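Hi,

Apologies if this is the wrong queue. I'm a grad student, and the batch job for Zinc-dependent metalloprotease from Mucilaginibacter xinganensis produced an output file that my downstream script rejects. I'm not sure whether the problem is my script or the file. Here is the sequence I used:
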Amino acid sequence: MTKLIRANTYLCITAITIAVIAGSCKTKKEAAQTVTIKTTATASGSSATATIGPGKKEGIKKFGDLIPAKTQVDKGLFNTYKVEGKYYYEIPDSLLNREMLVVTRLAKTPANVKVPNQQYGGEEANDQVWKWERHDKQVFIRVPSYSIRADSTSDMYRSVKNSNLDVVLASFDIKAYNKDTTGVVIDVTDFYNGDIAAIGIADEVKKFYKISTLDNSRSFIDTIKSFPINTETRVLKTYRAAESPTDNTNAAITFELNTSMLLLPKAPMEARLRDDRVGFFGQSQTDYGTDAQKAEVTSYIHRWKLEPKDEAAYARGELVEPKKQIVFYIDPATPKKWVPYLIQGINDWQKAFEAAGFKNAIVGKVAPTAKEDPEFSTEDARYSVVRYFASNVENAYGPHLSDPRTGEILESHVGWYHNVMQLLRNWYFVQTAAVNPAARKAKFTDEQMGELIRFVSSHEIGHTLGLPHNFGSSYAYPVDSLRSKTFTDKHGTAPSIMDYARFNYIAQPGDGVTHLYPQIGEYDMWAIKWGYTWFPGKKTAQQEKEILDVWTKEKAGNPLYFYGRQGTSIDPRLQSEDLGDNAMKASTYGIANLKRILPNIEKWTYQPGKDYDDLEELYGEILTQFYRYMGHVATNIGGFNENSKTYDQKGPVYDFVAKNRQHDAVLFFNKELFTTPLWMIDSQELSKFDNGVMLNRIKSVQVGTLGNVLSPYRLSRMYDNETKNGTKAYTVTELLTDLRAGIFTSGRPDAFKRNLQRGYVENLKSLLNDDFKGIPGVPAAVLASYGVTPINAALSDIRPMVRAELKVIDAKLPKDGDAITRAHYTDLHQRIKEALNPTRPVVNLPVAGGRGLNDDLPKKSELENF
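Support response: The file is valid. Your script probably expects a header line. Output copied below for reference.
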């Protein structure tokens, strides 16, 4: 039996009735080939042989021969045609070499996908920039790089071009010229049907589900639609997979994806140079075209293009509408009762844009129905959308896509998980129920929850406008100001809604405070003014920078306009979930409120006929909130104040936290943590859900905090401080003495204190015998900026001091007491002996997270959200 088939340029031959061995797929363009397959019967079965010979190459056809006259054309960016199951692009010459942003999103996903940010319809899979380029009888997709640049007028321009060749993603034969020969026609069927990384599912998904190949027999192009500045391609792709989120017997996983190809502006927006003193997302390029005597890295902020409709009125200081408004549509899948609150969270930013001279610059809208606009799609890259996910994830996020040439934001798809409401309920209860009767319930009213949703909506929209988290904002408000009704009614909890300054845990009963959550504040309006003010006269980025520098220096030193980056652990002002300008004072107020809430959880969340899941969850949230307070305080020890500055600004960039404040932090621990927090043990409530883990959970908080305080990186900074500032520094010697005084108190140690004392000795033992390494490939200066301060423990003063401290503890261990106390002290003596004379191999520890021996505290509520 013999079969003749035509081998497609980009597809491997897999099976034609029998297994076919025809060589591997070719990665470069070849002529079509004829493959002859011959089967031969044998005693053991049959065998197959393949003979490959050159086939007849198809030439360029006339347009009418390729596209029949009655074929319906979908006009737009590229005119598109569908003929006998094949899809064709008609590419006009005018769009060749034009840059286009290509975004692939998940349109529909199977249930139970577990890969973060790749789970739900609307989430982004990939994005890239393409240029369609013609070469002889072929068209290529080129992927430009923007990592290096030089102005076209620069002497370095040619050199940069020679060192920045664009990658070829794909090639296509020209099938025909269009009717007036001003464009070409190509077949894109195999391209969109293929397993192309740039327009497929993310690599993380493939790895997680052990995906091997794309199954073409279970995949197809659903639609290709063209619009004036974009095309939208929707495909269904089924992959062979060893694992499946639903049913492994299928040995497959199926996704529906939408790829948007959006034409970028021919004349790019003028970029605005980034400044570390004002928080904006951005992008960096190595610029070889500047006057600097080095390869200079330039960074641009991400921002929407806003230009006034009436430039003259804008110049007079009047509020003017922009030529193009920023519009966010609410996903039609959103529960209707939450839509007004999501829209209000978007519209709240209008007052911030007024600071930049624009009115009605941003607006939230209900998405049009199919009847109102049959072409509207939430995956369409022309539209920014708040997507609502049916998910138990307790989170929301606000991404954006920008023009890599200039930083211009082009669109955003905010991700909104349904279960963010559970997170809001827990935080609002734990942080405000002591002063807020409205929070003392298991389920909030729709109005209450709606206002909390509005707050999160505003925060996420801030990200889509280019604003990152400002973790330094909440430090601007004095702790006692947050106990003032007059102050909080006007200012909320922080000058920026972009901080993680959730709800007012500082206000005490009797203060009368009722405005308990963040709002768009002074910093937010300043940042929008800085990033979005329009300058007339077509100024260059450098000319704009000179004006903005003056503005920034005018705000310098005023904590209302301070920007503090996320991710560092060296500055106590830049912390997640904290409030006020003094962590010890704020946390003391917070703990006082936790003591009021804990005994009342059962009463305040009582629900007839329900089990005690809510009681257990909220009890755990209180423990987690307490742990947050400990982290806020710990950062003061060995901490810096970090203030970004330029040469023409006075004062230090890095300034150590004052000695008395570091000392106060340890005194706080001795009082609130190392003195056993017995108030956490409410036996009546614990008897409803606790199955014997409370001792261990409190141990985890105590010993975990102790490990954080005794981080070698923190001690390294303290030694650096002592070297530079002498007696003005809070020293490691003083730290160890103060800790010992709180941990080894007189009297019989209870079970909690015994855990704590063992934890202290084990942490010292680790400092004495373990090595602490950085992250391979990451420069020490970069690690230090995030708190992983370089340290060679073996050659530092840490080990001599720790050795001396262990000897002091050993000498002071009592010899008497009851049986458990004597056994405890004997054990400590043995641990110290082993630490001073190790008998087991040394362990090289990686970068520590500052949790010490904490390995069993619930982590769910500690995840960063929003």
